[in-house]
Amino acid sequence: MRFRETDLMTIRRDMERCPVANFPSPVTDFVTAVALQFFPGAKLDCAVTETSFGGLLDATETVARNCRIALLNAVDLDRTAVLGETSPRIAVREAGTAAAGEGTVTS
């Protein structure tokens, strides 16, 4: 499957119309949006996405919960301006990507 420039412009326009207009990481959110458009037509058995920003604020939160396995790594004090100033506060945000009824693996 190939994307035309018009496809990419449509994705960008849709993102700009999103009620959450202030994306924390616009470039990686755009790449995630493009990937999520690609996956259904690619006939994949499995797709792996990585949260670029962390937990609940990440574009990967749009993936249906019934087909996910959350992999949680150790909490790091990066992006504290948005995620929180302390390890416990960041952990709450990042753990929010896991949900009841889906697989969760921690490191």
TrEMBL record:
It comes from the Bacteria. InterPro entries: Mur-like_cat_sf. This is Uncharacterized protein. It comes from Streptomyces vulcanius.
